[in-house]
Design the sequence.
């Protein structure tokens, strides 16, 4: 069965600090990978996704993620966070041909002004 | 704006009293999903509709049912809610069932069972 691990449950950073959130998945086949963000009081929204091609994916609001197949990882990065990035971040995996989107448990990011 | 709408945002029901949660979409997407998200846990897929074709996840309890009367609306029925069914219920849509299609989420309905 597929699973997604997000090891950081809560990350606290000061503004302008760099961010890296870890995501590892377990599945041996071809996958599509997603990062969703949930701002306080809002719905889940897509930050970025990977399905083929360049393993370095750029998303909205300056976020990027790198797919490293050998490590089964899809870490999210941002060089300089802002207070408005305070939110919960979910990594999700979908195997090709499947309908089920497997989510990690999420990482809460708090950015201190 | 096109979106996924869930009503109500907060629902309180009594133990064993049937409850229905509603989802509508203006995206004209073929697929609609229902997820359950308990506190500090990952959202978990309960079932989805591809057009009128209902697809239940193997571990979804029989207590949970769904209806999709038309493209725009999808309902989640909990026949006899237990205390363990208290959770956030998320509705999502996607254009098609291909894996690279992103899913668009509604704001969720938080269900409390007394």
Sequence:
């Amino acid at each position: 069965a597929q699973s997604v691990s997000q090891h950081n449950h809560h990350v606290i950073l000061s503004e302008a600090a760099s961010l890296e959130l870890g995501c590892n998945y377990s599945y041996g086949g071809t996958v599509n990978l997603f990062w969703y963000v949930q701002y306080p009081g809002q719905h889940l929204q897509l930050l970025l996704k990977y399905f083929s091609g360049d393993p370095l994916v750029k998303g909205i609001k300056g976020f990027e993620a790198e797919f490293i197949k050998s490590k089964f990882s899809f870490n999210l990065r941002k060089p300089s966070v802002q207070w408005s990035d305070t939110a919960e971040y979910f990594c999700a995996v979908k195997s090709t041909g499947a309908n089920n989107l497997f989510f990690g448990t999420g990482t809460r990011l708090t950015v201190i002004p | 704006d096109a979106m996924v709408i869930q009503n109500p945002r907060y629902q309180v029901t009594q133990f064993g009293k049937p409850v229905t949660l509603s989802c509508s979409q203006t995206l004209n997407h073929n697929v609609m999903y229902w997820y359950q998200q308990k506190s500090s846990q990952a959202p978990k897929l309960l079932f989805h509709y591809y057009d009128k074709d209902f697809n239940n996840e193997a571990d979804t309890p029989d207590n949970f049912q769904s209806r999709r009367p038309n493209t725009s609306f999808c309902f989640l029925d909990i026949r006899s809610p237990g205390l363990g069914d208290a959770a956030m219920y998320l509705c999502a849509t996607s254009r098609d069932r291909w894996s690279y299609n992103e899913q668009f989420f509604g704001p969720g309905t938080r269900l409390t069972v007394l």
User: Anything to note?
Assistant: The radius of gyration of chain A is 13 Å. Chain A has a mean pLDDT of 92.
